[in-house]
Amino acid sequence: MRHKLLSLILLFIVCLILVTCSGNKPENYLQEPQSEKILTIWWNRGYYPEQDEGLKKVVAEWQEKTDNKVELLFFSEDDILQAAIDALATGKAPDILFSERAEYTLIPQWALAGKLLDVSDVIETVKNLYSDTALKSAYLYNNIESKYSNYAVPIMQESIHIHYWHDLIRDAGLGEEIPKNWDEFWQFWQSAQKVLRQQNDSNIYTLGLPMSIDASDTYLIFEQMLETNNLQIINKQGKLQIDQPEIRQKLIEVLDWYTSFYKNGYVPPNAVNWLNYDNNTNFLNHKTLMTINPSMSIPGSQQEDEEIYLNQMRTIHFPTNPNGAESTYLVSVKQPVIFKSSAHPKRAKEFLSYLVQPDNLGPYIKGSRGRYFPIMPQLWKDPFWTNKKDPHISIASQQFTEDQTRLFDNSRSHAYSQVHSENIWSKAMQQVLIEGLSPTEATDIAINRIKEIFSQWKTLS
């Protein structure tokens, strides 16, 4: 018994020594578990493997240079924003998030609510390399701190493009040139449908115009139509002017004009249910003759088939506006963000600072096959963007570098991001095409909701 008692006393002394020693360790001994030391990046999956591989390459090189660890997860375009919303609600947001739709929907709202980290120091490292448009796109208002600052990191841009089947037009004897005058341009496609159907192509529709609530393409393309009709819902000073009688009347006319293509049978019947990829799919399956798309993903998907890419498909400029002026193209600047709740804000900034260096960013953008375009003037020097033998990227490059461009209206007033989030114009189309409301009734509903949104934002800010 005495031997057992001595053993117990000895064991107690050893344990006491161990506890005491552990308590004397330096403070940095209590570090994060290995899993928590990993920088988490959630990224919108690209349309092409080259784009994702380009990002993986940048991540791998940064890990090797810094000895940091990264968990890179790719999400679909439709899933990533909801995943981010859910993660923020549970306190498990990633360190870095990139979504293709966030810059004109949730990023301004997250900035307003103080959920984004100020990344001015990241931008400062390459500020002299950015275009003015890129810098403006990331300058947002934080209502919690009552200040404007940089709450996103611009990396690339996209705009609205028109694609059509040149071989179908040629073979139908409709001529080589598409009219550049506004009215003649749209009449051309309507006449083309009649000709093609008479030639036994009875299943083709001339126009691949999205008309659904579920596709962000719907409201982005409609916004471009408002721009081409010189309809400024928000003026350059950021003031909502939707109450003006001439603005309201013009909105009614444009909504009526746009939905009339569907009513008159020039748009596929299922366009009211399309997701973002459906106008692509219908066009590539030759179910539509022409389509409009807020990126260059359609020709990019056909680059490996030279016959289709070079000879059958065309990308063209918008026609002149109804008033005869050249079109101004709406552009959106793609931006990753760092959440204020990031577990590794310093490392997140370091990674984005590495990504935006021209030697890293240039190859990554090229991996999108022209789906995205540079926002740093020096990157345009790469012949990839100006090769005249490429009938698609060279035309789109002209839109960005030679034609007039401007940011979507959420840059003039961040409240407009809520209009995009709620798909206000897509809902108006549905009310006309599905519910049977008149364009006037649907426009007035949209106007009232937009006024409510701006009133709520004014209260917040």
Predict the CATH topology of the largest domain. Answer: D-Maltodextrin-Binding Protein, domain 2
The number of E-state strands comes to 13
CATH architecture annotation of the largest domain: 3-Layer(aba) Sandwich
Helix tally? Answer: 19
**What's the end-to-end separation, in Å?**
77 Å
Strand order of the largest sheet: 2-1-3-12
Please state the average pLDDT score: 91
Instruction: Report the uncertain regions.
Output: 1-35
Q: What's the alpha carbon Rg, rounded to whole Å?
A: 27 Å
Characterize the largest beta sheet: strand count, sense, and whether it forms a barrel.
Answer: 4 strands, mixed
Just give the CATH class of the largest domain: Alpha Beta
Q: How many domains, in number, for the residues?
A: 2
Category from helices, strands and their pairing: alpha/beta
| Binned strand content | 5-15%
Care to give the gist of this entry?
It is built from 19 helices and 13 strands.
Please tell me about this protein's structure.
The chain is an alpha/beta fold and 461 residues long. The chain has two domains: 37-158 and 333-398, 3-Layer(aba) Sandwich (D-Maltodextrin-Binding Protein, domain 2); 159-331 and 408-460, 3-Layer(aba) Sandwich (D-Maltodextrin-Binding Protein, domain 2), CATH 3.40.190.10. The protein is 45% helix and 13% strand. It has 19 helices and 13 strands. It has helices at 2-23, 49-66, 80-90, 107-112, 120-124, 132-137, 166-171, 182-198, 216-228, 245-263, 278-284, 297-300, 306-312, 345-355, 358-366, 393-401, 416-421, 424-433, 439-460, and strands at 39-44, 70-75, 96-98, 139-142, 147-150, 156-159, 161-165, 205-208, 288-293, 313-316, 328-334, 337-338, 404-407. The strands form four sheets. Strands 2-1-3-12 form a four-stranded mixed beta sheet, covered by helices on one side. Helix 2 (49-66) runs antiparallel to helix 15, helix 10 (245-263) crosses helix 18 and helix 10 (245-263) crosses helix 19. The protein is globular, with a radius of gyration of 27 Å. The chain starts with a helix and ends with a helix.
